[in-house]
Amino acid sequence: MTELNKILNRANKIVFLTGAGVSTASGIPDYRSKNGLYAQKKTPEYLLSHTCLIREPETFYQYVKHNLYYPNSKPNIIHKKMAAFAKAGKAIIITQNIDNLHGQSGVPVDRLVEFHGNLYKIYCQKCHQRVPYQTYLQSMHHQNCGGILRADVVLYEEGIKQENLQKSVLALQQADTIVVCGTSFVVYPFAGLIEYRNSNAKVVAVNKETISLPEKGIMIKGDAVQEFEQVTIKA
User: Fold this and answer.
1) pLDDT tens digit string along 205-230?
2) Which top EC class is named for this enzyme in its record (predicted)?
């Protein structure tokens, strides 16, 4: 039995903190690795900012449409194993990812916090009506009122929803085990959530690169897909 498997099956209340590395096995590029999305463009922070959305909505729309959407991607083994713990009532997932794959894997709504929002939830900025993401990918203009559509995600210069912050802090305060997976853990305020953890909680990270962890944190350096393939879930 692997170290990760032992840790997860001894836990009663797990919080999974996940980032883009969880979805690379589903064919979605990450952001900050040498081959990631941010390595391809000089100013992604501007192109994904509130300022760009307001000043240059067409530029913003084209960048988002052609760089962020992977509607044919499916949850991989990491998503599925995490979902199994969530469905068993043993885990809550707090994710930086906006790709909807945790939701697709069957995580109950009350056990998933999409910290930065969801690309597949679209609304009109003028009338606030929701529309299917397929409609958004055809046009950034709302056919009903002419308003500009956008995804319900947190852009640069925008704040995290209070509800997501509160749910995340509460989950970490109640957890006995925290598993960080697929994230460089340098983007705030997400990385700062660890400071709100139960002081007795075990902290473990599963990542290809070593990341900074609290004292006594356990670093499992390797491929998260291989690690989660070996995880079994006790009935």
Assistant:
1) 999 999 999 999 999 999 999 999 99
2) transferase
> Does 178 map to a domain?
yes
What CATH number is attached to the domain comprising 213? 3.40.50.1220
How many whole angstroms separate alpha carbon 138 and alpha carbon 136? 5
Q: Which residues are annotated as a binding site?
A: 124, 127, 142, 145
Tokens of 110: 């009350």
For the whole model, what pTM was predicted? 0.93
How far is it, in rounded angstroms, from Cα 111 to Cα 90?
9
The two beta strands, 91-95 and 112-114, are parallel
Residue ranges of the binding site for Zn(2+): 124, 127, 142, 145
Residues belonging to the active site: 116
- DSSP, residue by residue, the chain: --HHHHHHHH-SSEEEEE-GGGTGGGT---SSSTTSHHHH-S-HHHHTBHHHHHH-HHHHHHHHHHHT--TT----HHHHHHHHHHHTTSEEEEE---SSHHHHTT--GGGEEETTEEEEEEEETTT--EE-HHHHHH-SB-TTT-PBEEEEEPPBT-PPPHHHHHHHHHHHHH-SEEEEES--S-STTGGGGGGGS-TT-EEEEEESS-----TT-EEEES-HHHHHHT-----
Distance CA 4, CA 227 (A): 7
In a domain? residue 138: no
